[in-house]
Amino acid sequence: MSQPFAPQSPAPLSALENAAEFLPRHVGIDAADEAQMLAVIGEASRRALIESIVPRSIARSRAMDLPPPVTEAAALAELRALAARNRVLKSFIGQGYYGTHTPGVIQRNILENPAWYTAYTPYQSEISQGRMEALVNFQTMVCDLTGMPIANASMLDEATAAAEAMALAKRSVKSASERFIVAGDAHPQTIEVIRTRAAPLGIDVVLAQSAAEWDAALAGDYFAVLAQYPASSGRIDDLRADVQKVHARQAALIVAADLLALTLLSPPGEWGADIVVGSSQRFGMPMGAGGPHAAYMACRDAFKRSLPGRLVGVSVDAHGRPAYRLALQTREQHIRREKATSNICTAQALPAVIASMYAVYHGPAGLRRIALRVASYTAILAKGLEQLGAPLHAQDCFDTLVLRTGDATRSLAARALQWGANLRVCDENWLCISLDETTTRADVELLWRIFAGDARDLPAFDAFEPGVEPLIPTALRRRSSYLTHPVFNTHHSETGMLRYLRALADKDLALDRSMIPLGSCTMKLNATSEMIPITWPEFAGVHPFAPADQLQGYYELDAQLRAWLCQATGYAGVSLQPNAGSQGEYAGLLAIRAWHRARGQGQRTVCLIPSSAHGTNPASAQMAGMQVVVSACDARGNVDLADLQAQCERHSANLAAVMITYPSTHGVFETQVKELCALVHRHGGLVYVDGANMNALVGVAAPGEFGGDVSHLNLHKTFCIPHGGGGPGVGPVCVVQDLVPYLPGHATAGIAGGVGAVSAAPLGNAAVLPISWMYCRMMGAEGLRAATESAILSANYVSARLKAHYPTLYASANGHVAHECILDLRPLKESSGVLAEDVAKRLIDYGFHAPTLSFPVPNTLMVEPTESETLSELDRFIDAMIAIRAEIRQIETGIWPRDDNPLKNAPHTAESLLCADWQRPYSRETAAYPVASLRKNKYWSPVGRVDNLWGERNLSCSCIPVSDYA
Ligand SMILES: *Cc1c(COP(=O)(O)O)cnc(C)c1O
């Protein structure tokens, strides 16, 4: 008991410092809450609870060795010092990464706004209309600029998009060839990732290094070709004549194109390209040492059903109004599983939203102006370099010049460095210079000075300016219009933009409004102090391929974070390169494949995956060239060890790996996991432990200690990177000592070895790594363990309180769950006709995002409360679930019809309740205010139940024509 104003002996300084501790900010429950929750669960202490849940056989042998936690202010100060070790020079490197001005209204109201960045992937359509409108804008923008009929809502980066395009072409064209032709003047990182991806699929990648080689290659045999437009060195090739040649071979033409250039260039869709990919980075996303940025993929209509990634489509709601939803293959990962063709789950939703809003804010005229300025400055730069007698290589180009600098290459690059500029050193004889939106006159003059040598007159910018023409060939100038939809022609004032962003955000439920109890997704606090550093110029402003000494801050951050993640997982090595969990899985399986091959065991390609696994597991195994064999689960939800043993014996000679999730996707700590690992090892296989559920393990048990050989983490789940409405993510791949040599490398960035690059940039989504660094730094080893234990406590509290209303499907022998619980709603179908989906939609009326629906068990809800929710919020959710159970009873007892009740009609829009003639068998109050607290704080769904089938039958994935609103 404190008496704030009574004279008292001074508190010890350490107690005062505790007042600034981060832990109680991150964990939502305090000691009193904990006691109350333990009483409900029936355990004496948190320690006793954890010991009764986590099998003793896997408990950590010792605590994690992390630096002691510091306060938010101290962590920020320490990170500032790290950031200061990066050096932000003026970048003329290009190669897929360009300077850009993030409009302030977009930076503050999207990138730094939790209403946008804490949202989840829009699986629950009704509460995601705002972000889906933004993503439809993105798709429309990509379609318009590329001239293609359909585009998805983002890819992980340009290089992986190109690799996915290769795979899409392979499964879509008639040609049976295994050869893929790549123009040598594509971005080197793109070529590198394509090679990584092609190898396990048996695809033969042929580089065409010159025009002659390209022509010769096109006359040969292949299933697809890829060319960069404009090329990496800036040249604009006229590919129109190549289209017929490619199509005559029943093959596909893939074009990697720059969106800004396409505002001035004839778009690939107008001359017959089959797939167009690229990056939207220069539409407002800082370079951030390589990511996160939204890549894009657009394709011809015939390919749309195999398009990877997420696609937002337009449908109608229960009232016949337009409404957005995720379309097509969105669910296919789960349905297709081992037949899946792409493993993309988390993508780059937030960067895609930002790129789309950049286009909304500037509009077509603004984008064209920006592009024209870049192209004109490039032309002026060229004139000046010519005047100076610089060895400029004449070429058609948009923003990039190339110089044959020969012996002077290194000294010119060094001279540029002295003056604060990075040029691209292509090889020992060639330099490239790329301009962008941020290039100023002074920059152009600086570049002239670099090439002028000493004591010479500089060219005069003003002299070149009148009548300057871009260096774009007349035949390839764009004549078609783009971005004609009103959304790109309305919000050009800052006031207008601000209100548009606010209106969209207001339609959605994100963590800034309520708990998002999504099992397997770990929607925990994304603390503001963790988010602040990502827009610091020292992190945001650096080019991924800048000289190493300019990236020292990032290297150190990478090294520290990797060391901490090794502590958390018990593994020996980590790579932060993969851009999502799925990419970490893929990288991990590549490491397993490489390890077997290095030991002369290349025949080991069978990957056993339990039936309860996440859909990305079989999809990743497929992409890594493995043969997926599904193993059974028993009635209690555990991996059926007898079946696994039989499968191991059957495939013993060819067993590559077993992929398990731990604790299982059923939310249970299986007690026999050590035996499982030993069994797999006995048969020569390796154990892949999917780390998506690490929020139940950090500080408590480590997969690298209990038998795992490889895991991926989801930093956007366990380590606080926000979900961004469907990305960005970071999916570190973690391995035991023997597999460290097979982690991803990155030759383009000078990092040799390993299984090659799996992402365009060596550190993947580097710019969001400070978030997880801050989290670990402020929590420390004890704090992270406390978070895990609180997460487990909260899940058990939810399970215990709801037991009498919705039984938990799977639990350990003592009735406890891990950090999530599956509520079994299956019996309700029989008794009332109510499906889990109806409860999910009714929760919207109560102001909640639904738990995970029908994964891993159909017609169930999987609840993961995380450690960050307060007890009052947990209770609010539980009370809503109990109230809904009472509503279901009204149906069971016949008071409400099975097809006309608050669950089937949920969610209720304000408009539907305000109709003059209310005919439902329940009152409007029951519909809108089923519990009293809603009268104080009510979320109104902007649309009624979205009709998925209608959307599937009438597929449309671009902005809604204005007439449809009439
Ligand atoms: C989220 C998740 C994944 C995939 O991770 P992404 O980052 O979305 O690619 C894989 N496995 C499990 C069990 C997951 O929950």
UniProtKB/TrEMBL annotation:
PANTHER family: GLYCINE DEHYDROGENASE (DECARBOXYLATING), MITOCHONDRIAL (PTHR11773:SF1), GLYCINE DEHYDROGENASE, DECARBOXYLATING (PTHR11773). Gene3D superfamilies: Aspartate Aminotransferase, domain 1, Type I PLP-dependent aspartate aminotransferase-like (Major domain). This is Glycine dehydrogenase (decarboxylating). The keyword Ribosomal protein does not apply. SUPFAM superfamilies: PLP-dependent transferases (SSF53383). Its cofactor is pyridoxal 5'-phosphate. Belongs to the GcvP family. The lineage of its organism: Bacteria, Pseudomonadati, Pseudomonadota, Betaproteobacteria, Burkholderiales. InterPro entries: GcvP, GDC-P_C, GDC-P_N, GDC_P, PyrdxlP-dep_Trfase, PyrdxlP-dep_Trfase_major, PyrdxlP-dep_Trfase_small. CDD domains: GDC-P (cd00613). It holds the Pfam family GDC-P. Its EC number is 1.4.4.2. Residues 25-451, 471-746 form the Glycine cleavage system P-protein N-terminal domain. GO terms for molecular function: glycine dehydrogenase (decarboxylating) activity. The modification N6-(pyridoxal phosphate)lysine is found at K717. The glycine cleavage system is composed of four proteins: P, T, L and H. The glycine cleavage system catalyzes the degradation of glycine. The P protein binds the alpha-amino group of glycine through its pyridoxal phosphate cofactor; CO(2) is released and the remaining methylamine moiety is then transferred to the lipoamide cofactor of the H protein. It catalyses: N(6)-[(R)-lipoyl]-L-lysyl-[glycine-cleavage complex H protein] + glycine + H(+) = N(6)-[(R)-S(8)-aminomethyldihydrolipoyl]-L-lysyl-[glycine-cleavage complex H protein] + CO2.
